Amino acid sequence: MGRNGQRGFVAQSHMVGTAPPLLEREEALAALTEALASALGGEGRVALVYGEAGIGKTTVVRAFARASRGTARVLWGACDPLFTPRPFGPLYDLAREAGSTVLLEVEREDDRTAQLASLLDLLGETPTVGVVEDAHWADEASLDALRYLARRIERVPCLLVVTYRDDEVGAEHPLRLLLGAIPSGVARRIELGPLSDRAVRELASAAGRDATGLYERTRGNPFYVTEVLAASGSGLPATVRDAVLARALGLGNEARAVLDLASVVPGQVERWLLDEVLGSASAGANVCVERGMLVPGPGGLAFRHELARQAILEALGPERRAANHRAVLHTLEARPDRDSLLPRLAHHAEAAGDAGAVVRYAPLAAARAAAVGSHREAAALYELALRYADEAGDDVRVALVEAYAHVAHLTGRLDEAIAARREAIELSRRLGDPLREGENLARLTMPFIGAGRNAEAEEAGRQAIAVLEELPPGRELAVAYAFQAYLRMLSRDNADGVAWGERARSLAEEVGDVDTLAMALNMIGTSHVMAGEIEPGCEYLERSLALALEHGLTPRVASAYGMLASGLGEMYEFDRAERWIREYLRFGGERDLDVSYITSWLAAVHVYRGRWDEGAELAQQLLAGDAGPLARITALVALGRVRARRGDPGAEEALDEALELSRPGGHLQRLGHVLAARAEAAWLAGDRERALAEARAAYPLALEKRHLWFAGELAYWQWRCGRLESAPGWIAEPYRLQLAGDALGAARAWATRGCPYERARALAESENTEARLEAVGALDELGAAPLARQLRGHLRALRVRVPRGPRPSTRDNAAGLTRRELEVLALVAEGLRNAEIADWLVVSRRTVDHHVSAILRKLGAHTRGEAAAEAARLGLLENR
Length: 880
Description:
Layout: H1 13-16, H2 26-40, E1 45-51, H3 57-68, E2 73-78, H4 89-97, H5 112-123, E3 128-133, H6 140-152, E4 158-165, H7 175-181, E5 187-191, H8 197-206, H9 214-218, H10 222-230, H11 240-248, H12 253-263, H13 271-278, H14 282-290, E6 294-297, E7 300-303, H15 306-315, H16 318-333, H17 342-352, H18 355-371, H19 375-387, H20 394-410, H21 414-430, H22 434-450, H23 454-468, H24 475-490, H25 494-511, H26 514-530, H27 534-551, H28 554-570, H29 574-591, H30 596-608, H31 612-624, H32 629-646, H33 651-662, H34 668-684, H35 688-697, H36 699-704, H37 708-720, H38 733-739, H39 743-752, H40 756-764, H41 769-782, H42 785-797, H43 808-811, H44 819-829, H45 834-841, H46 845-859, H47 864-874
Parallel strand pairs: 1-4, 1-5, 2-3, 3-4
Antiparallel strand pairs: 6-7
Helix pairs in contact: 2-3, 6-7, 10-11, 11-15, 12-14, 12-15, 16-17, 17-18, 18-19, 19-20, 20-21, 21-22, 22-23, 22-24, 23-24, 24-25, 24-26, 25-26, 26-27, 26-28, 27-28, 28-29, 28-30, 29-30, 30-31, 30-32, 31-32, 32-33, 32-34, 33-34, 34-35, 34-37, 35-37, 37-38, 38-39, 39-40, 40-41, 41-42, 44-46, 44-47, ...
């Protein structure tokens, strides 16, 4: 909902004794009520309540929660503004309020899925409103957990309300991943805007205060208005800080001590903590609550607004602030559950300036965060520890730098990961530890590759082996060999990839390093597959998979599935590729892994197998999200091929972006895929010179790497342009047959691989008229207008009678719906829900959500009923 429709606030109860009604929040409350009704009907929803700091999100949600308690259980969780948030903080709160023993703090990432499934079951036990406040402060693990819940919430009678400050959530904020992952049919977005002038005057009147100039000073921000109106004194403070401090001035010593101590604890301060530090703090705490400075919650006391806490904190002065942090730190250190308080200990240690405590607790908190998938928080904690580790010694610092390099790489901070690995290498040399130096050199290859700095990656790999081969062979050398195998495989130097992989395997078996053994088997298998040696390659990859599954090596399991999926796809083994793609998506989906790259390969497989609607739609979904470069390249190629083959606009733009993304590193893996698609698009557009240039650009590299399919297709387009000088006999069979003039044999080879467009293209090249006419029909069925048009013109020039192409009325229906959208529309008209449609069509619920949204948009309908009525009027449901 827009800002203009979501304005207003409620005066706070401490101002006038009783809480007046909410002002200008009817639409927000109605939207929440509607979402809850859907949840009570068995289809859970996520309500996103957002606006700038102080806009009244908590007030609206609390009012809604009060009104809902008769019909649903209300559970409340909150994210804390710690320097680095506590992993799973709001989820702990929800589980604790439900009286559950579900513990989300797990030591292994593999355990997390079961814990989240238990939490989902907990939310579905009874109609529930689950509130997660201030998600802009959430840690990465909490955001992953919320994404897991949001994707599955529709199964349970739960309304999950998530609040956040949109003015603190930029394009790169981790919360964006959650917002983009919520299915459109599940999310209800409720934006809260500022007060109107009228509302400000009404609140001032209720408080018995003069409203002159109040709107201009506060710009209608509800928190500013409330705090200014609540402040004591004869004049209006100019800022929120003045308002908060003016109210705090009247507190007695005990209450002010409580307020000052509470200000150094983000979120809620426990009453036991107040008592431990201050003695008996009950009297002072009660005064703070009575005066409205603090509000009680299930875990203790909290400031009514975070900005108020910050105002009190800043007013303490450096020495008093550090003393309070020190007191809290020492109290938390004495707790028997200290290990569960590590992020807080690190936070207070830094604020107290206690370098020793920072170095003690920040790495432990980072390791705990990394174990549950909160890699950004882990990186921030390692950075914190490193800032205070100057006096800790090189041996301590090198371990911290290595750990930081690992999580920085995982979070895409490649420059930081490279710098950290280089520092670790230098520290290892200073310590006289060549084993450590060599392993860090080997691991430096990965961020270099990710950054497109291939030459530096190659140099690091060579240096790693040179250093480690001077020492007795061990695990570190096996790691270096495995990374060298990865470099060779990535460059499609397949024989070398196998050779280095075998060296890594032999040494890993000798030293008992299972993780490196699984990686070595993977690299050997993938190199075989890339050489066209499919059966031995799959055998090695499946051995890697079995080993990884046996030992619970989640990254290696994902890598085996991924290599089988994408490698077999690159080799046009689409039946098997699709099987492994589905396996990866199942495995990754259960663990909330990044599945974007393998999903892009599913889009490509759809396209090659003639399922153009599904492929283009899936590619567009990926491109609308936050997919990485490799996934975007594959999706753009899939989309560009469909657009070019259909003659739709936008093919050139898609393939231009793909080329730009594929240039760094100069890998054939990327360039061969993209330049072949660009050659095809140019040829279909009638630009033979550009098609020839595109085909020749990567052809020498494809020949050098002996890539069956890239060399084959790039040779084919040169041949179609009449400018092929020569082609080797080892290229992929369908292309070899076409270049040899055996169009019908090529068509049979393409049919065996399940590629209907390529089969029709081969038939079109035949001298057999019947085969050419068959090609016309197949191209019409696919919607391949450019090639069908070319073939019709050629046949008519030969005086062959050619059937007319599909009429616009049948090819392009009045609403411009795709074939799949027409199928979904027919099921919508029958009254099926999205989940039922997904089961019927054997697709994901999210895919159906996208289809239904597109249908409503194209038909100009607001509801499913309106869509069905409009479809009937346009005759779109006839014969369905």
